[in-house]
Design goal:
Layout: H1 3-28, E1 37-38, H2 45-50, H3 54-61, H4 63-87, E2 94-95, H5 106-139
Antiparallel strand pairs: 1-2
Helix pairs in contact: 1-5, 3-4, 4-5
């Protein structure tokens, strides 16, 4: 784990989660979104990165901050999956085969909108935590990394 790869993983995580939240917003507003992946926090690329070399990441970011980042990431995926479950026709792991537009039951759409409002808030919280992580790591000397 180099400093450069660590910074790259954090920047990519921010972009990926922000873009997925935007796609969810489009889905809720009635647009068709065909390339939305239903992923748990452990299946997503950033979640896998977080679970590798945990002790090193804790020493670089600080244990409390690492735990906070992991907790926010878990919350983000919980809300994301709640929305995905509402919109997908078949329960299957991986790529959502078909997504409905807003032609779902009004109560389900309202529920999705509620989850989305939570997702928007958590997305901002996650983006902020990732920005702080990026700045912390950028300020460290290279010798702290493998």
């Amino acid at each position: 784990m180099t400093k450069e790869k660590t910074l790259e993983a954090i920047a990519k995580a921010k972009d990926n989660h922000t873009n997925l939240a935007i796609k969810v917003g489009q889905l809720i507003s009635g647009k068709n979104v065909n390339d939305l992946h239903s992923l748990t926090q452990d299946e997503c690329e950033f979640g896998q990165w977080m679970n590798e070399n945990i002790e090193l990441k804790k020493s670089i970011l600080g244990t409390q901050f690492y735990i906070r980042l992991d907790t926010v990431h878990t919350k983000w995926h919980r809300e994301f999956l709640n929305i995905c479950d509402i919109f997908k026709e078949e329960k299957s792991k991986g790529l959502l085969s078909k997504l409905f537009s807003s032609k779902i039951e009004p109560m389900k759409l309202d529920k999705a909108k509620f989850y989305y409002s939570e997702l928007e808030s958590i997305t901002q919280e996650l983006a902020n935590a990732l920005e702080i992580s990026y700045r912390r790591i950028a300020a460290l000397s290279d010798h702290k990394f493998i």
